[in-house]
Amino acid sequence: MNKRILIVAPNWIGDAVLSLPVVDGCARYWPEADLTVLARGGVAALFEASESAERIVGYQRGGGAHRIGNLLGLGWKLRRERFNLALLLPNSLSSAIVAWLAGVPERLGYSTDGRGWLLTHRLRDRRKERGLHQVDYYLGLLHSLGAAQVDRIPRLQLKAKCIEMGLTLLSDMGIDKRELLIGVHPGAAYGETKRWFPERFGAVLRRLQKSGRRFLLLGGPGEELIAQQISMIMDHPPIDLVGKTTVAEALALVSMCALFLSNDSGLMHVAAALNIPQVALFGSTDPQKTAPLNNKAVVIHPKHVSCTPCFMRSCPEDLECMKAITVDEVATAAEQLLTI
Predict the structure, then answer these.
(1) How are beta strands 278-281 and 259-263 bridged, if at all?
(2) Strand partners of residue 217
(3) 274, 296 in Cβ contact below 8 A?
(4) In whole angstroms, what is the distance from residue 53 CA to residue 5 CA?
(5) Which residues have a Cβ under 8 Å from the Cβ of 168 and sit 6 or more positions away?
(6) Beta bridge partners of 67
(7) CA-to-CA distance for 131 and 308, rounded, in angstroms?
(8) % helix / strand / coil in the chain, to the nearest 5?
(9) What is the DSSP string of 72-140?
(10) Element (H or E) spanning 35, and its range?
(11) Are 266 and 13 in contact (CB under 8 A)?
(12) Which residues contact 295 (CB under 8 A, 6 or more apart)?
């Protein structure tokens, strides 16, 4: 298929990782096609750090009137590219508007958010389909084009310069490359119902403390207090980089870890795509839909709590699902992964 294909990426890091099989599938199924990935902000940085032949076009969303102006400008900018086909991975109306403004004659996506009239190839909304993993939701677009044999496991291969940046960061922090690095992301952008308690994270890290092991706290802006609470609990404070790294730096540092411990978050999916052993904690969300697709992952989810998954941002039931996850089971799972 000798076409110019525009792949509109999801807007969150975790979703972008889960969309990698679509990008890789397009490249392998149609090797003659000219592929471009359109991605916002930090998501663009994820694709740019990856060993990928696809061209990346980044943009800023903006807010209010600026957002409308940005969408119009982006659409007209892309019109000059003369794309033949657009694959819309986000469910948003705005992504369909951009593809329409860009004059892309074939626009493929799920008929969601009232945007069906802007699509030339509409797939029925599958978001409420029971047990459907987000990866398979995205791959449904490729399958509709006849690409049946596609690897569904997200794989992230970082560029050499990204790896070198990670090694430099470790050296600057005084970490010997022979030390065993344990990465921790104790936050989650979605809200409190996806966040295990800082005091329990701290208790797990205290249990895991041994000579030759170093702990690295990662996360985005707004999660600094969580990291501070964990550091106060520990006998030997971890290296706290929460809110202090770029996306590319965070990717590089995760790739250096011997173990990654996190809630259901974007960095959880990054660790999975890098094939890092990990312990992933789920509260309000559903592992059937967003579990890390990593055979080295241990997923802990209190299925016996009747109200989970609820997908709520705030909890009316005092976070019973998170309370049901114990320090002992998390520490035991982590220690087992470290000794394999």
Answers:
(1) parallel
(2) 184, 240
(3) no
(4) 13
(5) none
(6) none
(7) 14
(8) 40, 15, 40
(9) HHHHHHHHTT--SEEEE-S--HHHHHHHHHTT-SEEEEE--TT-GGG-SEEE---TT-TT--HHHHHHH
(10) strand 34-40
(11) yes
(12) none
Tokens for 145? Answer: 């084009």
Amino acid at 197: F
CB neighbours of 330 closer than 8 A, spacing ≥ 6?
196, 200, 204, 261, 279, 281, 300
Which position has the token pair 């922090």? 173
Q: Which residue has the tokens 């209010």?
A: 64
| DSSP characters over 266-304 | HHHHHHHHTT--EEEE-SSS-HHHH----TTEEEE--TT
CA separation for the pair 192, 77 (Å, rounded)? 39
Exposure string of 151-183, with b = 16+ CB inside 10 Å and e = fewer, is eeebbbebbeebbebbeebbeeeebeeeeebbb
DSSP 8: E
- pLDDT tens-digit map of 1-53: 568 999 999 999 999 999 999 999 999 999 999 999 999 989 999 999 998 86
What whole-number distance in Å separates Cα of residue 61 and Cα of residue 176? 40
> Which residues does 149 contact at the CB level (< 8 Å), separation at least 6?
none
Between helices 93-101 and 64-79, what is the axis angle to 10°? Answer: 40
The CA angle 325-303-13, to the nearest 5 degrees, is 75
Structure tokens at 143: 């399958």
Structure tokens at 79: 């019109």
Q: What is the pLDDT of residue 239?
A: 95
Q: Report the run of H or E that residue 249 belongs to, with start and end.
A: helix 247-255
| Confidence (pLDDT) at 66 | 66
Question: What tokens were used for 166?
Answer: 């990670």
Location of structure tokens 């979605």: 190
Domains and CATH numbers, the chain: 4-144 (3.40.50.2000), 160-339 (3.40.50.2000)
Residue ranges in the chain whose pLDDT is less than 70: 1-2, 53, 62-66
Is the whole model's pTM more than 0.90, yes or no?
yes
Q: Report the pLDDT value the prediction gives residue 277, as an integer from 0 to 100.
A: 98
